[in-house]
Amino acid sequence: MQPVVHSVLDWMTAAAEPWRDAWGNSVVLSTGVLFVHLAALVLGAGLALAADRNTLRSWRAGPDERARQLAELAGTHRLVQGALGALFGSGVLLFLSDVEEYGSSRVFWVKMGLVTLLLANGYAMTRTEAALRGTDAQHPLLEALWRRMRAHSVTSAALWLVTLLAGTILASR
Q1: DSSP character string of 100-166
Q2: What does the pLDDT look like over 122-143, one tens digit per residue?
Q3: What pTM does this model have?
């Protein structure tokens, strides 16, 4: 490990020591944080995967079904974003419970990279949704936007599942 990274991890480990002690001495605390993380994952990933499936189905449908799906996505993405916020907060607390272990784990950093890709894809997806909402049904770019939306949905589903796999590998170590 590079000296600067090692120094940062040493500093973070020392700073997180009170949290690590609290975590290790309270089953209620550690169970609660892990529950929030897993519940947010189930909620966020479940909603996202269902929305991705519906988007893929509406991609082949007519204008009425597509409009209904776009309206549904706005509400769904707000819930997924809330779940991602809970995942982030609980994930930070999980990380701080063992900075040395997580900070030096390649699997952890791969997972963080996947989370970053998931967030970037979600951002691009919401931008594509906005473009679709503002595009007339006869506009020549409409089909290209729906193809882009389809690609974002496939990418979203794959990233949620691969990120879950990375988290499972991390938890099993």
Answers
A1: HHHHT-HHHHHHHHHHHHHHHHHHHHHHHHHHHHTS-TT-TTHHHHHHHHHHHHHHHHHHHHHHHHH
A2: 999 999 999 998 888 778 888 8
A3: 0.88
